[in-house]
Amino acid sequence: MEPCRSLALLAGSLGLISVIVALSTNFWFVAVGPTSTSHSGIWPRKGDELPAGYIQVTETFGILAALCSLVSMGLLVLSCVPSLSAPGRGPLVSSIIAFAAALSLTVAMAVYTNERWNQPRHPQIQCFFSWSFYLGWLSVPLLLSAGGLSLGAHCSRPQSGYETL
């Protein structure tokens, strides 16, 4: 297997895992007060009221990014088996879908960041982003790398022409 495709699989797999972990954990935002600490994520708990619009946007685009990333990695794995993939098109389609996953995740993270950043502050409560949030942002360059490396794998493959006949 060529190096670009292998590195694309590695970057895409790490991106997919980090998206899934970021979406499934509840440590996006932490508030530390004088007597207690609280953390929250993007998924409402039972009995909570309907989540804010920015939370729903983050959930929707985050899930879309995870699904696109999963499809991208599946196509890239299938492109390694010549009998299962369309000739030479697997890495190209995989790179397009990986770029779509990165764009979708960027929208989700930017909306969440902007809304949380602009919320009013209480003088006795210190609020900051936590590790799930940063893991979500880390996924964006990983998915972009997977898309770029997959595109490199597509461009470096031998071109069919009269020489191969």
From TrEMBL:
<feature type="transmembrane region" description="Helical">
    <location>
        <begin position="7"/>
        <end position="29"/>
    </location>
</feature>
<keyword id="KW-0472">Membrane</keyword>
<keyword id="KW-1003">Cell membrane</keyword>
<dbReference type="InterPro" id="IPR004031">
    <property type="entry name" value="PMP22/EMP/MP20/Claudin"/>
</dbReference>
<keyword id="KW-0395">Inflammatory response</keyword>
<comment type="similarity">
    <text>Belongs to the PMP-22/EMP/MP20 family.</text>
</comment>
<dbReference type="GO" id="GO:0006954">
    <property type="term" value="P:inflammatory response"/>
</dbReference>
<dbReference type="Pfam" id="PF00822">
    <property type="entry name" value="PMP22_Claudin"/>
</dbReference>
<keyword id="KW-0458">Lysosome</keyword>
<keyword id="KW-1133">Transmembrane helix</keyword>
<dbReference type="GO" id="GO:0031640">
    <property type="term" value="P:killing of cells of another organism"/>
</dbReference>
<feature type="transmembrane region" description="Helical">
    <location>
        <begin position="61"/>
        <end position="81"/>
    </location>
</feature>
<dbReference type="GO" id="GO:0005886">
    <property type="term" value="C:plasma membrane"/>
</dbReference>
<dbReference type="GO" id="GO:0101004">
    <property type="term" value="C:cytolytic granule membrane"/>
</dbReference>
<keyword id="KW-0812">Transmembrane</keyword>
<dbReference type="InterPro" id="IPR050579">
    <property type="entry name" value="PMP-22/EMP/MP20-like"/>
</dbReference>
<comment type="function">
    <text>Regulates cytotoxic granule exocytosis in effector lymphocytes, thus acting as a critical mediator of inflammation in a broad range of infectious and non-infectious diseases. Essential for cytotoxic degranulation of natural killer (NK) cells and CD8(+) T-cells and for the activation of CD4(+) T-cells following infection. Plays a critical role in CD8(+) T-cell and NK cell-mediated cytolysis of target cells and contributes to the cytolytic activity via the perforin/granzyme pathway by enhancing exocytosis of LAMP1-carrying lytic granules.</text>
</comment>
<feature type="transmembrane region" description="Helical">
    <location>
        <begin position="133"/>
        <end position="153"/>
    </location>
</feature>
<feature type="transmembrane region" description="Helical">
    <location>
        <begin position="93"/>
        <end position="113"/>
    </location>
</feature>
<protein>
    <recommendedName>
        <fullName>Protein NKG7</fullName>
    </recommendedName>
</protein>
<dbReference type="GO" id="GO:0042832">
    <property type="term" value="P:defense response to protozoan"/>
</dbReference>
<keyword id="KW-0204">Cytolysis</keyword>
